[in-house]
Predict the 3D structure of the following.
Amino acid sequence: MTAVGTDPRKEPMNDQLQLSEQMSAGAASLRVDVHGSQPREHVLDDLSFLNYRLADVRISPEVSLVEPDIIWHQDGDKAVSYDGRAIRFDGPWPAGPIQKVIVAMLALRMEAVGLHPSHSAAVHYRGRTLLFLGGESNHGKSMGLIEAGLRGGLQVASETTVIDEAGRAAMGSVEPFLVKRTEGTERSDKAAPNRGVEKFWGEMPTWGFHDGTPEIDLVIVPAIDGNFDPATNRLIPFEAQFQFLHSLQNYFLTNELLAPGHVMPLVDTDALRERRAAFVARFCERPFYFIRAATPQVLLDEVEKVL
């Protein structure tokens, strides 16, 4: 067992099970057990972050999983560890780090049933389904979605598109922006989401939503910057797979600081990465384009040239 912080094998004095709760996203499920001296009604009081990151997360009415995927001992010194199957928290953790770990572990369970969360927005536009990929830099997927919606496109997904093995958008998050960050995850380097909207449109446009699970036809890796002249390039296989893998790895928090002095344990493995790479290769057989543009309006003008 790899541990960060104090030795998690030292059990706290009060090890009473206070809560066992099961969450699901599509066909994937995850169980969280909470021990200690403090009673809890739910693991998290607000699921908005989970739905923003994993499209549609629900609390199951009953716990059916035999073993927990996350174990939280609320008492004792703060620590976090992973034994190859379950993550264990010790000590008084705020909601922010807990929800980030739930995202990573539930994303693993989703992969196991053939669902791949992708850091991307998707829109049904001009009769085709486009994926605006966050990729390595994440410069413009939400802005591309908004402008496409303003031109009559129907939203399939905002922050996250869950893609099945056949390349269809199986689920999609609804909210285009994360309005509030939970305690322990605040970021002063992130601009207020409405600033970009005010800059490009004055006020938030409205648009419709697409029903069903459409196959993704085309992938756009956007790069919006006020200094960019328009440029559109079709990506070679290496570039397409490089960018798409970035969007999948975004959910496993390999570079994540959960709290000062405590990093996210590594939950990824070589076997998982090999299977993920095989899925990436299959998915990237469809056309990928990298588009530089000064504004979302110019971005969509360029998109329309390759449709």
Summary: The chain has two domains: 2-112, 115-306.
